[in-house]
Amino acid sequence: MNPRLTRSQQKTICSQLGNVRLQLLYKASVHGFTGAAFHQRCDNRCPTVSVGYNASGFVFGGCTKQPFSQSGQYVHDDRAFLFTFSGEKLLKYPVTSPAYAVRMISNSGPYFGEALVLVNASQAVVYNNPGNYYSFNAAEVHGNDLNLTECEVYQVEDMPEYENPWRLVVWENEKRMELMESIKSYKPTINSVSQVRVLLIGPVGAGKSSFFNSINSVFRGHVTSQAIAGCSATSLTTQFRTYSLKAGRGGKPLPIILCDTMGLEESTGAGLDVDDVVSILKGHLPDRYQFNPSAPLHSEAHGYRKSSGLKDKIHCVAYVVDGCKVSIMPTKLEEKLDAIRRKVNLMGIPQLVLMTKVDEACPFVSQDIRNVYRSGYIKEMMQEVSARIGVPLSCIVPVKNYSEELELDPNCDILLLSAVIQMLRFADNYFDDVSDQKSNIELKEQ
């Protein structure tokens, strides 16, 4: 049961309520537009946020700290409020008569003081009467469209916080420098390979290009933007790009190349083609190859590298997932990721997940990035990523890319550098497998 309320809208509502999250209890299109269905799912649950949606595009509702019931009585709530969204902005209308904030009616849904009722008289409609209990402009709240296309009720839950982090991280500048030196001095265990090639795969807007820019920024010593990144409904990356990182301006190349691809899109014939992934994994694609989503790459295409060595192949795959959109990942997108993961598994290439935008997903982490492993919410999101993509929790690394900052944050750097270290460790596993296979072949030939 996926929430219709976007992650951004949920975050905006939660900002009015403290360090909390929303858990979907009732969805009228699933459970029924009836008072009975609403009360069965929502009675004795509190605090709650009730949301109505209409065909005119309005998203509106109310919040109360009191538990719902079927008593027929008014209930006092001095903190209740109604709301509507104007774009991403929340317009709030506090209760003006707290003694009549909420009424408990058996054959209706959420009932806010005779002023606003969702699923009124067990119908997919709104009852609307601005007045003494709540003062608001009806046209502003719902555009005077009183027919509901959906109604949802969410329980407001305190965000779990761990006293001790569930993953240990040393948040000190010495550790940051140690991680940077480890990356600079790394050498692949196979002599024919000088740089580990990591392929970044993920939905449009998840932060693949931004991850490269962020790692590049750490080693440059200031925020920089070499790869094209930004907000768009379709992929801003249209070419296959291989980005070699350098240790400072004019410095030596680092032993890792980040390979950027088109973003995954849910519709067929759009975004990165699943069949192109195999060509990338095998090292057939040259840098700056122009993707054609409607026609996968073939061996006669211009620039196709027919003969590729181990140094050209991908040694680790990193799926990049937006932490704000984990729970609303479209099924088609999930199916594409699953198809890719199966192909990567067949080739024996290690895989990990970068979960980006953790600060946007969790207010507790937004306060201080060092709370990332103390946040129960982030752990839940990582567990959901694990289930959806099919990788162990130990293979998921939360990060915060640089997007609006002008100066580096040592704590963000530590998360980003730790992710790179994991990539190098996973690549070592790949090289070990290659060496073992070579040794087995040599033994058989003796």
In short:
The protein is of the alpha+beta class and 446 residues long. It has helices spanning 7-14, 28-31, 35-42, 138-142, 173-185, 208-220, 274-281, 331-346, 358-361, 363-367, 376-390, 410-445, and strands at residues 20-27, 48-54, 59-64, 74-75, 81-86, 89-94, 102-103, 111-112, 116-118, 126-128, 148-158, 196-201, 239-246, 253-260, 289-290, 316-322, 351-356, 396-398. The strands form 4 sheets. Strands 15-13-14-12-16-17-18 form a 7-stranded mixed beta sheet, sandwiched between helices.
Written description of the protein model:
There is one protein chain. The chain is α+β, with helices and mostly antiparallel strands and 446 residues long. 30% of the residues lie in helices and 22% in strands. It has helices spanning 7-14, 28-31, 35-42, 138-142, 173-185, 208-220, 274-281, 331-346, 358-361, 363-367, 376-390, 410-445, and strands at 20-27, 48-54, 59-64, 74-75, 81-86, 89-94, 102-103, 111-112, 116-118, 126-128, 148-158, 196-201, 239-246, 253-260, 289-290, 316-322, 351-356, 396-398. Strands 15-13-14-12-16-17-18 form a seven-stranded mixed sheet, with helices on both faces. Strands 1-11-2-3-5-6 form a six-stranded antiparallel sheet. Strands 8-9-10 form a three-stranded antiparallel sheet, with no helix packed on it. Strand 13 (239-246) and strand 14 (253-260) form a beta hairpin. The longest helix has 36 residues, at 410-445. 41% of the residues are buried. Mean pLDDT is 88; it is low at 230-235.
